[in-house]
Amino acid sequence: MMQTQDIGRMILERTGDAHEIEVPFGEWLHVGPIHLPTGWVVHVGRAAIDLSPTRNVVFLAIAAVLVWLTIYLAGRSLERQRRTGNGAPRGVAAMVEATSLFIRDDVVIAGIGRKRGAGFAPYILTLFWFILYCNLLGLIPYCEKPTGSFMVTGALALTALLTIEISGLVALGPIGYLKTIVFTPPGTTGITAVLLTLIMTPIEIIGKVVKPFALMLRLFANMAAGHFVMLSLLSLIFLFGNITVLRWAVAGGSVLFVLFMMLIELLVAFIQAYVFALLTSTFIGLMQHEH
Question: pTM here?
Answer without folding.
Answer: 0.85
